[in-house]
Amino acid sequence: GDYSIYYCRDVLRCPEGLPGSCAIGRTGRACADCFKGFAAASDGSCQPCDALQLWPFMLLPLVVIAIVPLLVFAGIVLSKARKVAISVFVVCLVFGQLVVCLQSLEAIYQFDILWVDPAKAILQSLSIFSFDIEFSCVIPPRNHLMEYTMQLLAYPVVLLGTFLVWSMARCTRKRVSFIYFVNFHGIILIALLTAMSLSVLRPFQCRENPNGTSTIVTKTDVICWTTGEHIALILLACVGILAYPVAILAAISFLTWKYPIWLRSSSGLEVLEKYRFLFGRFRPERYYYGLMLSFHNLVVALIPATLVAVPALQVGIMGIVVCVKLTTQSLLWPWRVDVANYNDMVLSAGLLMLLLLASPLLNLNEQKAMEFVAVLLAVVMFLLPIAALLAASAAVCFRLRPQSKYSMFLCHHKAGAGALCRFIKLIVHKYGRMNIFLDSDELDDLSRIFEIVSSDTRCLVAVLTPDLLQRMWCAGEMTSARKSGIPIIPLYCDGFAFPDADCINKIESVWTEEQQYTLTSHGISMEDIK
């Protein structure tokens, strides 16, 4: 008879022997499925189901039932024991980072790599993070449409179950705030974004077979694009993409955009409490890192699906993505506690090490793939010296064309105008993007104050109060601005009067000899001030 050749997901599923023979307990095209009542084993065969294979289905109701006690406990801890609450917060941060890292490992496991034990067994156990669960214990084999629908409905079931439990908990003595409910599901959606994306993108993960057809990598008995079953899976996948990654990222983007505005409003504290799951993990000035992290997690999930036809690129692109994330995290240092920052760095470095160690196992049997990798290596080696030249050129241009660091320098007498200058800086920051110099905020070394005026300031605002000229530093700042050609903008205040000629001639009597020496050491003479 005629034979048609398909790729197996795992060589252990299709052992050597007669054409079409499968491992024990397996059936279907490319030995993709287990018989009903059987579950996949690590040796490629299918064994009769027991309690161990049913644990994902037994775990769901237990998780739903346990949520409310956990929320109550969290509320008590956060309200009564601050030290314990901080410790719980740190543990949750570290655990959440670990969950995200494990999902990245699951994405890496889907690469076209010849994994070997014990690494293979460990990675197989992470299939729960992409909802790649064996349903053959509970439903007939080859019913992939029902399996995929159950995967898409997993989170809505959890949402409905927790909502019902929360509704019943409101009738108890210790009520659970709805804010805890929102934060709980916010954490779930952000933490499992990679897993949800891996799951919904699975129907697009089609690989070409030697016979010219394409099949889904994880369901090798489903022929892509030409069968009604796959078309139905694609339609469901489009709904899942809109419902999960697109909706989640749209919500996070909107919240991140509105967060600074809401925080300055009268309901700022309420907003901070309601969206603590997104912003509470990071330092206030790095509130946007949650959005960056979510986009990173989505890209990690996209790599196995979009590069399934070019497996030679999968490891390299994933390495670049992890490197960018590690560099960004090191520069921004976004997490609220240092332990979380160090832990994130270690986990990212661990993923890079795993990619480097797994790269020799990458399946590069095709000559075209090897040629493609060779071209990419040549391009990278060509770009390295160019990057160095660009960096050197940028440094030279920056030195030759220095830019003013501060748009405005506030020259003032602290006792007379300190509060006014603080108000000016707050207002300018609220409605503009100008960098304002206020000595109480910016200056660590007073000896550089005149250098900042002359070289790093675009204009100087002199806040004219009665005692301004009695402060040696203020007179020196205005003199430095005049000598360097920096525009001076006067801001008149009540009580200020311009000094007459007699006051100007006696100006040196106002300052001590030490203060006059300080001005002279910076190249400012009494004649310059007069």
TrEMBL record:
Keyword terms, alphabetized: Membrane, Transmembrane, Transmembrane helix
Gene3D superfamilies the record matches: Toll/interleukin-1 receptor homology (TIR) domain (3.40.50.10140)
Highest taxon listed in the record's lineage: Eukaryota
Listed SUPFAM superfamilies: Toll/Interleukin receptor TIR domain
Keyword flag Phosphoprotein: no
Transmembrane segments: 57-78, 85-105, 148-166, 178-201, 231-257, 287-307, 345-362, 374-398
Name under which the protein is recorded: TIR domain-containing protein
Upper classification of the organism: Eukaryota, Sar, Alveolata, Dinophyceae, Suessiales
